[in-house]
Amino acid sequence: MHCKSIFDQALAEHRAILDRLPEGYPAIERLARLMRESIARGGKLLWMGNGGSAADSQHLASEIVGRFRRERRGLAAIALTTDSSVLTAVGNDFGFERVFARQVEALGQPGDVLIGISTSGNSANVAAALHAGRCMDLTTVGLLGSGGGRIAGLCDHALIVPSDDTARVQEAHILIGHILCELLEAIP
User: What is the pLDDT of residue 42?
Assistant: First the structure.
């Protein structure tokens, strides 16, 4: 395939997905309000995902703790993907499927918001953590692709990008995440 064709196809696919995102705005606004209310009550946002979704989790948690667009106090957000000692100890002792669930058990409190990012909607360790979060009375959220997969059923709120293409789903996830960050700063 010619380089220009790859470029044009990627842009066309990206635009097609972005053109559908306004359909999800009511759910995105509800989620931002729910996140803001959790933080206002002393709760926190727990983010997780694998690979590129792990990087997105870290990126979005840092925007929330630090700042996105405006100066404000830090808001409580943690990426469960960052502690290599915990990840490797839990992975070794309990299996990779438990690396996030174990952290949810240790760090989660009722009223916290647990956000799992999965392009396939089928990441076993994200699903296990969302299940643990539900059992502990956390609000469970999925940023998903591919129709939502099995994770959608574990989420109180599922934002599903209408694509099976991992790159396009990741691009939409980071846009949705940035919108959530901006709304968190705008909502009193």
Answer: 97
